[in-house]
Amino acid sequence: MEQTSKKVIVSLKDIFVRFDGEVILNHISLDIREKEFVTILGPSGCGKTTTLRIIGGFVEPESGDVIFDGERINGLPPHKRNVNTVFQKYSLFPHLNVFDNVAFGLKLKKLPKDEIKRKVSKMLAVVDLKGYEKRPVQKLSGGQQQRVAIARALVCDPDIILLDEPLGALDLKLRKDMQIELKDIQKSTQKTFIYVTHDQEEALTMSDRVVVMNNGVIEQIGTPEDIYNEPVNAFVADFIGEANILNGTMIDDCRIRILGTELECVDKGFGRNTPVDVVIRPEDIMITSPEEGQLVGVVEKLTFKGVHYEMSIRCGKCEILVHSTSSAAIGSTVGMSVVPFNIQIMNKLLPFYDNIIETEVSSSDESANTFSFELEGVTVEVPNHYFPEGTRLRVTLPPEALSLAGDGDGDLQDVFIESVIYKGEHNEIILESDERKWLMLSDTDEQVATYVPLNFDFEKAEFEVLDPEPAAREG
After folding, report:
1. For the residues 140-169, what does the mean pLDDT come to?
2. What is the sign, positive or negative, of the torsion defined by CA atoms of 425, 230, 196, 415?
3. Among the four residues 32, 44, 210, 336, which has the most C-beta atoms within 10 Å?
4. Is the peptide bond before 43 cis (omega within 30 degrees of 0)?
């Protein structure tokens, strides 16, 4: 209730950004309230830094509006926005000491020396650097340099602080310490912090709200608890923490089938016999005797993690990850149970039936038993099948009929990998070409946000003639 009553300080309305013809932000909208810590989270290339730069005035949207405190500020340069930015590379002035680095913006405003001294001293106390005023910045640790950068951003009293992966240059222990310090600084100064990171632990640790982005769109906005416990789709579930993401069928309300077993859940409204994605967190699975388990599997891996054991359990063809305070020996058969509340049901990112091409045969060779069709400006040849020229076809390609061309010469070039989700026995990969999305299965990991050549195995395809003539023959 308190969160929703806070005033909206900045709004992005239907923001669209393209660089060199590539869509970076695809009509996103976002409201950020005063005095809250908002983290924009996502993989490399998802558009999170561009979103931050839109707010800061460093990038202008192709369309859409930036609203600050109720006023449209499109075109307003950065120095006229009441916003300051802390970058991963802190951009401190190496020839100035700590005091002069923090005082730099105040001196540009030509404030009286006494006021500058008072403001800088107060801000150095806030970031726990009192007594460091005369210290050269080159002799500070990474964490201390970061605090100088934060003090410099805060001392001019902006409404919003933008932080672009500021902990990325720190070692693991210092990064964890600074997560707590940053949140404490935000609370003590009562400023709006907008923080960009690809690190889900940072987002969960510091944020009032998390904005999860992927491929230029916002997938989900919510509290850290909401994002972790109630992900809206497999991408969010996979990106936020560890999760078992399984293919399932929603039999009916509150009834799901996974791995050949029917289980109770609490979700409704997905329809009957609907393919869905099912998320079960490793810590929500209880190890039981085989007789008491809802699922039964064999322990393949066992790792002690300090506060729990991590087990990989083979259930049929599927690998299930379990975190438990009790262990079971490698090779032993165990049962697994999960309460209905801890089974999360989600709509699939892309249904299998989307790998459908409706086309017309552009050329054919009956003697060679081949035909060709045009797909996104490229001629694709289909071997071992013949349809006369002009035949209208529906070609259905199951996910296993798609693969990445290792030699770089595929049926389609420069196809974008949008997401890679591990489903226990294989990766489900969503790719985007110029006109459509594709779903592919793979046993290997692929790099998200890269461009790859895509191959089709037409021996696994189904062909349907869309008009009654001419006759077709398959070989």
Report:
1. 85
2. positive
3. 210
4. no
Does 4 or 137 have the greater pLDDT score? Answer: 137
Contacts of 139 (CB under 8 A, 6+ apart): none
Q: Please give the pLDDT value at position 5.
A: 66
Report CA torsion sign: 459, 463, 469, 471: positive
* Measured CA distances, 472 to 391, 409, 456, 467 (Å): 8, 29, 21, 11
Entry pTM:
0.82
Average pLDDT over residues 77-83: 90
* pLDDT of the residue at 375: 95
